[in-house]
Automatic annotation (TrEMBL):
Transmembrane segments: 6-26, 154-172
All copies of domain HAMP, residue ranges: 173-225
Keyword Membrane part of the UniProt annotation: yes
One GO CC annotation: membrane
Residue ranges of every copy of the EAL domain listed in the record: 408-647
Protein name, as recorded: Diguanylate cyclase (GGDEF) domain-containing protein
Length: 647
C-alpha cells in the first residue's frame, strides 16, 4: 500500500474511533435520560391509577379495575401493570411480551439493553392502606427513540466521512506530490534515467528530501558523464586520428583484419585507397594550416562517400594515405563515386593553388571477394598507387576491373526465391559466461543453400538481399524460425537474432513483431541485437522499439559496440540489456596494455549502468583469460567452437 493510502486509512481509522466513542457516550447519555423518562412515566401512571382506583381496590372490584387498567395498557407504552390488595394478593395484572418495535434491528437490541424500572404507589382510601399499584413502562419506546437518534447520526457520519475522505485524499495528494516525484526519480535512476524535480515544495521536510534527491541525481549523472568523457578521450587517443577524426592506422588495420580475415563475411566490395603525394612539400609551400585543411577536406569527402554504404571501413593509414572499404562492386557506381571524389579534390587543390604542376592526389581502386585478406588488400593498393605515381594518373583502376563481379541475374533470382519462400538455414554461435563457463545465449547466423544445395556464408548473398530490398523479409524469416524453434525447445539457452536498420524502419514491422510476440511467451528466451551504427543512425525509432521489446520481456543488445566515432552516450536513451564489444578492439587484448585499459573502461562504464558486457570474435585462450580479469560477463568466438546448425 502506498504512503498516501496508508495515511488516508490511518486518518479514517482515527475518525471511526472518534465517532464510535462519540456514539457510545451519546448513547449512554441518551440511555440514562430515557431510563429517567421511563421512571417518571411509570411513577406518574402509578400515581394517577392509584388515585382513580382507590375505592375499587378497597372494594376489590376486579371488573372495574380490569376495565380501567386495560384502557391505559392498550396504549402500548407499558410493559406491566399490577394491582395488589393490602395483603399483597394480586387483584389484576396485565403484561406485554413485546420488548421493542420491528423497526429496531435485533443487533441493536443485543448491543443496547434496557430494563425499565418498576414504579410502585401505595394506595390509601379513607385513611387506611388498601393496596398497591406497580407500573413498568415498556422499553420499546426507549429503543425506538435511541435507534432513530443513532441511525440519523450514522447517516450524517457516513456522508461527512466520504466528503472528508475525498477532501483529505486531494489535500494529501497535493501535499505529498513531491514524494511521488522522488519515487519516480528513484525508479528512473534504477533504469539509468536522470530526472530532476523542477518544483521544490515549501514544506521544510519535503523540500529537504527533494533537494537531496536532485543533488544525488545530478551527482550520478555527472559521474557517468565524466567517466564517458574520459573513455571517449582515451578512445580518440588510442584509435582515432587527431587531425581528421577518422580511425587511425592501428584501428583501421584491426577492422580490416576483423572483417576480411576473421568474419569473412564482407564479400564483394571495393577498396578506395587515397594517397596525397609530397605532403611535406605541401607543408613547406602552402603552410601547415593549408595542408591540414586539405587533409581534413579529403578525409571528409571520403567519409561522406563511405557513409552511403553499410558496413564500411574508413581510416587514415599514414600521414598521406587514406582507405575506405565499401560493400559495392558495381563498376558504373564505383567509377561514378570515385570520379566525384576526385573532382572535388581537384577543385579544392586548384582553388588553393596546391601543386599546380603535379597531381594533388592519387586514388587506387581494388576489388575484394570472399577470399581477399587484409594483407593482400593493402599490398595490392600500394602497388596500384605506385603505378599511379609512375604513370601520373589521378585514378588507377585494376586491370581486371571490367564489371565481371556484378551479381548474375540467376543468382539474384535464386536468393530472392530462397528468401521469399523462407528457405533460411540457421546456424548459431555460443556466448559463454566467464563466471561458470555456461552458455548465456546462442547468436543466430542466417544462411541459405546455394544452387549446389550447400550452405553459403552471408557474404555470398547479403549484398544481393540488400540490392533486391529483401533485408526485412530475411529478418522476418529468421525471427519466425527462431520463434518456431523456441516453441518446441523450452530448455535451450536464449536465442539472439540480429536485425537490420532497414527492417525496423519498415512501416509494418512493428505491427508484425507485436503480433508474433503476442502469440508466444518468449520472456527471457529471445534477444534482439542491432548494430551500433544502425542505432546511432535512427536512435528515436530504436528507443521506441526497445520499449516494445522490454514490455514483452525480450532482451536487447548492441552489436559491434565501441567503434563508432560518436561515442556511447546513447546508452542513456537506449538502455540495452547487454553490449557486444567489437572484435577489432579485442584482437590484441592479451598483448596491448592500451587495449586492455580501454576495454576495462568500457566494461566499468557499462556495469555502472547495469549493462552486461560480452566480447566478440575471441580466438585465443589468452584473450578470454585477460577479459575475465577485466570482469567481462561473457565471450563469443571460435575459441568456443565453430558455428553449429540449429536443428
Amino acid at each position: 500500500m502506498s504512503l498516501l493510502n496508508q495515511l488516508i486509512a490511518a486518518v479514517f481509522a482515527v475518525l471511526i474511533g472518534l465517532v464510535s466513542g462519540t456514539l457510545y457516550i451519546m448513547s449512554d447519555s441518551s440511555k440514562e435520560m430515557l431510563i429517567h423518562q421511563l421512571e417518571s412515566h411509570g411513577q406518574d401512571t402509578a400515581t394517577h391509577l392509584g388515585l382513580y382506583l382507590a375505592p375499587y381496590i378497597a372494594a376489590e372490584d376486579k371488573a372495574a379495575i380490569e376495565t380501567t387498567v386495560n384502557a391505559i395498557f392498550d396504549s402500548g407504552f407499558y410493559q406491566k401493570i399490577e394491582i395488589t390488595n393490602s395483603t399483597g394478593d394480586t387483584l389484576f395484572v396485565s403484561t406485554n411480551t413485546s420488548i421493542a418495535p420491528e423497526s429496531v434491528p435485533k443487533w441493536f437490541l443485543t448491543l443496547v439493553q434496557f430494563t425499565p424500572p418498576s414504579m410502585e404507589r401505595e394506595i390509601s382510601y379513607q385513611w387506611r392502606k388498601v393496596g398497591k399499584v406497580s407500573v413498568q413502562s415498556r422499553a420499546g419506546y426507549a429503543y425506538e427513540q435511541l435507534w432513530k437518534g443513532t441511525e440519523k447520526t450514522l447517516i450524517w457520519f457516513i456522508s461527512l466521512s466520504l466528503i472528508a475522505v475525498f477532501s483529505l485524499s486531494y489535500l494529501l495528494r497535493r501535499i505529498l506530490r513531491p514524494l511521488k516525484g522522488v519515487a519516480e526519480q528513484a525508479t528512473a535512476l534504477s533504469e539509468r534515467k536522470y530526472i530532476e524535480q523542477k518544483h521544490i515544495p515549501k514544506t521544510v521536510e519535503l523540500k529537504l528530501v527533494v533537494e537531496a534527491m536532485n543533488r544525488m541525481v545530478q551527482r550520478v549523472q555527472r559521474m557517468f558523464d565524466e567517466q564517458a568523457r574520459h573513455i571517449e578521450e582515451l578512445r580518440k587517443t588510442a584509435y582515432l586520428d587527431n587531425l581528421t577524426g577518422l580511425a587511425n592506422q592501428r584501428s583501421t588495420h584491426a577492422q580490416l583484419c576483423d572483417w576480411l580475415d576473421y568474419r569473412k563475411e564482407f564479400g564483394h566490395g571495393t577498396c578506395i585507397y587515397l594517397h596525397i603525394p609530397n605532403l611535406q612539400a605541401l607543408n613547406d609551400t602552402q603552410g601547415e594550416e593549408a595542408a591540414n585543411n586539405f587533409l581534413k577536406y579529403a578525409a571528409k569527402q571520403l567519409a561522406d562517400l563511405s557513409a552511403q554504404y553499410q558496413p564500411a571501413i574508413i581510416g587514415r593509414l599514414s600521414g598521406s594515405d587514406f582507405l575506405a572499404l565499401i560493400p559495392e562492386s558495381n563498376e558504373e557506381i564505383v567509377k561514378r563515386e570515385v570520379s566525384k571524389l576526385n573532382e572535388s579534390l581537384i577543385t579544392l587543390a586548384n582553388f588553393e593553388k596546391i601543386s599546380p604542376n603535379e597531381l594533388a592526389t592519387h586514388i587506387a581502386i581494388i576489388q575484394t571477394d570472399l577470399n581477399t585478406s587484409a594483407a593482400q588488400l593493402l599490398s595490392e593498393a600500394r602497388l596500384l598507387i605506385k603505378q599511379a605515381i609512375a604513370e601520373k594518373r589521378d585514378i588507377q583502376y585494376p586491370v581486371e576491373f571490367t564489371g565481371s563481379k556484378i551479381t548474375s541475374t540467376s543468382w539474384q533470382e535464386h536468393v530472392a526465391s530462397a528468401i521469399n519462400n523462407k528457405q533460411v538455414f540457421l546456424q548459431f554461435q555460443k556466448v559463454i559466461s566467464t563466471h561458470d563457463e555456461q552458455p548465456l545465449q546462442h547468436e543466430l547466423l542466417a544462411r541459405i543453400l546455394n544452387r549446389d544445395n550447400n550452405p553459403c556464408s552471408a557474404a555470398e548473398f547479403i549484398q544481393v538481399v540488400k540490392e533486391l530490398g529483401l533485408i526485412d523479409a530475411l529478418d522476418k524469416a529468421v525471427l519466425e524460425r527462431a520463434i518456431e524453434y523456441l516453441t518446441h525447445n523450452t530448455t535451450c539457452p536464449p536465442l539472439t537474432v540480429n536485425l537490420s536498420q532497414q527492417a525496423i524502419q519498415t512501416d509494418d514491422f512493428e505491427k508484425w513483431i507485436k503480433s508474433q510476440l503476442s502469440k508466444h511467451n518468449l520472456r527471457g528466451r529471445l534477444n534482439i541485437e542491432i548494430n551500433e551504427t544502425a542505432i546511432l543512425n535512427d536512435i528515436n525509432n530504436i528507443v521506441t522499439f526497445r520499449d516494445l521489446l522490454k514490455q514483452n520481456g525480450i532482451g536487447f543488445g548492441v552489436d559491434n559496440f565501441g567503434i563508432h566515432p560518436s561515442g556511447f552516450s546513447y546508452l542513456y536513451a537506449v538502455q540495452p540489456d547487454y553490449i557486444k564489444i567489437d572484435g577489432s578492439l579485442c584482437q590484441e587484448i592479451d598483448q596491448s596494455d592500451e587495449d586492455c585499459f580501454f576495454i576495462r573502461s568500457l566494461i566499468t562504464a557499462a556495469h555502472s549502468l547495469g549493462i552486461k558486457t560480452y566480447a566478440e570474435r575471441i580466438e585465443r585462450k589468452s584473450q578470454a583469460e585477460r577479459l575475465k580479469q577485466l570482469n567481462i560477463d561473457g565471450t563469443q568466438g571460435f575459441l568456443h567452437g565453430k558455428p553449429e546448425a540449429l536443428v
